[in-house]
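HUMAN: Now follow token order:
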Amino acid sequence: MRDDLLELLWEGLRQTLYMLVWSSVFAIVLGLFLGITLVVTEKGGVLEARVVNRIVSLAINSVRSLPFIILIVLLLPFARWVVGTSLGPTAAIVSLSIGAAPFLGRIVESALKEVAVGKIEAAKSFGASPFAIIFRVLLPEALPALVRSLTIAVIAIAELTAVAGAIGAGGLGSLAIRFGYQRFREDIMFATVIVIILLVQAIQWTGDSIAKSIDRRRHRTE
């Protein structure tokens, strides 16, 4: 093991975690908004607005149809306008957030649609407002499914940080390409793969633990 391996790994992991945390926060906020909008504005939804639903759905499908590396390139001017640069982890957060939000929106939509229609109708019969139904019925009832869905999304964002590293974002992906592949450092390639695997496993374990904890508390109160 060369002397610089741990130092390089730590710097790459630090940049990856920085991108992952902030991208996940922004993508989750945007994804929740998109997913909720899709569900409540569809036919029969609590805020039915079919035109809005079609526009949001089209926008989501359009962004999702683009390969992520092309999306990053397209968003470089926007990232430069937002954060003042098109290179580095901070600029990558812009592209990662926008790229992951449509995927998140769809899985949030799927999780919310698992909520029993009877519970929504019961809330309506008691005179609950649309926003009360969203925040007191839809989201709480779908919470375990949402946590599992968001876990999948965060893992996807972790994988996308490696792609972003290929065009100057830094992180473990950049480390694997610039030092491992281009400089024929097999030790760096192997160590980077191990760190990424451990990172994904940690995210999955955390998400599963939170979802199981919510399920247990719900069963105790029923």
